[in-house]
Amino acid sequence: MALRDSTEIDELRFPLRVVDQRILADTEGAGRRRGAPGGLVEIAAVGTTVEAMYGSDGSVFPAEGVRNGRAGALAAAMKRTRTGEIEPAPSFGGVLLQDGESVISRSAGGGGYGSPMTREPERVLKDVVEGWVSRERAEAVYGVAIVDGRLDREATERLRTSLGAGSPAG
Fold it and tell me: What gap in Å lies between CA 52 and CA 58, rounded to an integer?
């Protein structure tokens, strides 16, 4: 089975329910040009036993950053039991799901390009507003201070100086 339609159509056609599907904040490889964030999807068996087969590349070695960019987050596969316990699952292969159990896939984030300290503060602010990067990560990794949802340029300059920001060339 390949999920190609909308979630609602797939839930009507197959004995499954999409429990969660979203982008994960702070999984991008930080950089002047950040890598793509990873995603999460959880799919549960409904009313029957389902064999879920999958491949999860990027679970051992992350997508490396280049020119001082950071690596993206690792991928992972998991199984949620009927009691809610989450167990690790193999990166490649499959799991047998009983009614009410689910498979969880966390995809890898892409590697960043260039030093995160050289990412334009306005872009970091937009990343925070859109939920790709947390305010805490913006400060610690990108050296960008965001106060009350707005860019604090003076605090950003001080923060980047104290963190030893690299040259804008990255």
Answer: 19
Mean pLDDT over the full length of the chain: 93
| Confidence bin at 86 (pLDDT 50/70/90) | very high
**116/17 Cα distance (integer angstroms):** 38
All residues at 6 or more sequence positions from 22 whose CB lies less than 8 Å from its CB, including other chains: 39, 40
**Alpha-carbon distance 8 to 60, whole Å?**
33
Q: State the CATH number of the domain containing residue 99.
A: 2.60.40
* pLDDT surpassing 60 at residue 168: no
Strand extents, DSSP E, the chain: 16-23, 39-45, 50-55, 76-80, 86-88, 92-97, 102-106, 146-147, 150-151
Q: Is residue 114 part of a domain?
A: no
The Cα–Cα gap between 96 and 81 comes to 11
Residue 30 lies in a domain: yes
Rounded to 5 degrees, φ, ψ at 59 are -95, -10
- What is the amino acid identity at position 4? R
62 CB-near residues (< 8 Å, 6+ apart): 29, 71, 72, 73, 74, 108, 109, 111
